[in-house]
Amino acid sequence: MTSNPARSHGRIFSSLDRFRIEIPSWGFANTGTRFGKFIQPAAATSIEEKFSDAGQVQALTGICPTIALHALWDFPNAIESVPEVLRLADRYGVRPGAINPNLFQDQIYKYGSFGNPDEHGRDAALQHSRLSVQVAKQLRSRDISFWFADGSNYPGTANIRTRKHLFEEYLKRVHDELDADQRMLVEYKPFEPAFYHTDIADWGMALLLARAAGSRAKVLVDTGHHYSCQNIEQIVAWLLSEDMLGGFHFNDRRYADDDLTLGSIDPYQVFRIFHEILFFEWEKGTRADIAYMIDQSHNLKGKIEAMIQTVTVAQELFSKAALVDYDVLTTAQDSCDLVRAEGCLQDAFATDVRPVIREWRTSKGLPADPLQAFRNSGYLERISVERASRNASSVSSYA
User: Fold this and answer.
1) Is the whole-model pTM more than 0.85?
2) Separation CA 241–CA 314 (nearest Å)
3) Where are the beta strands (DSSP E) in the chain?
4) Could you say which DSSP state residue 243 is in?
5) For 167-193, what is each residue's pLDDT tens digit?
6) Are the C-beta atoms of 72 and 81 separated by less than 8 Å?
């Protein structure tokens, strides 16, 4: 950490001025586990209620101007839903963000989407993906985020190399539909729901497929999509070095893809990720073009409270990472002064940045404590009454 208090104060303010994080529409709806779900009376039951909840988070934090949307769940009428989404964006003060195609829910995807041996399944996935790109164009959304559940459960039941080639082919066909200012983000996941092999199981596979797709394809890193011992910040550093890091889906986990609130289990890991990004930017003298997005579904925590909690923790960890003194760090690294180099990170992480963050919020006309402001607003009590009956009757729906 820099020893100059005024410089530290300025670094925190500067980091907060630039930091934006996208919130997911599905994070406000009733979602569940493989065993069921617990209904919350205040959960959003419509796209308008999702926009309303997202508007609350943006109004209280000031750093969440966009909401990620799910093609299918949020666009029941596909292109015809676009005018309504644009109207809601204007009304609630949050813009449409990344569009997330759904290539795993319909029965035709039982054996995969782009990797499906059946051409009808692949063509259905291609049609939906192209439609998602068209929706993104009309909403002026830059990023289309792809996650695939494709894989196999038993040895010998799938031709892994053939499926790889199919993904190369179909991702390129979708990539060719993009406008010049749009991006394809390719996500990866080591397992679940495919338990023997997953077609895009790690960052290297996602990197190779993104490069095969075209110049506007990048890798999307979900912090929950890794084995427990994996060094995620090293993956981030490599992707930055290759100019292939497109964005994040932020969450936390104890075991696997648990979708816990950011920093609830390992805040130091998130700090280290942010550090690698800011260190890279300092070395290159330019900003990395990264979409910071949340991907969380809360079954027990209140959905809006959990989202505000994640956003504020993200601010704290990003601000802490901005305090690392890179001049001291690089000198220590070059001289193999291990204790001093590690201390640069530890000192920054140990700094209580919350007073300066509260000062920053006040300077922007925002509540110093967004979570308490939400609790005092009466919004939760009001929507709990308004939505309770609809939620009670929606047990069978997923999103």
Assistant:
1) yes
2) 23
3) 23-24, 66-70, 95-100, 143-146, 151-152, 183-187, 197-198, 217-222, 245-250, 291-294
4) T
5) 999 999 999 999 999 999 999 999 989
6) no
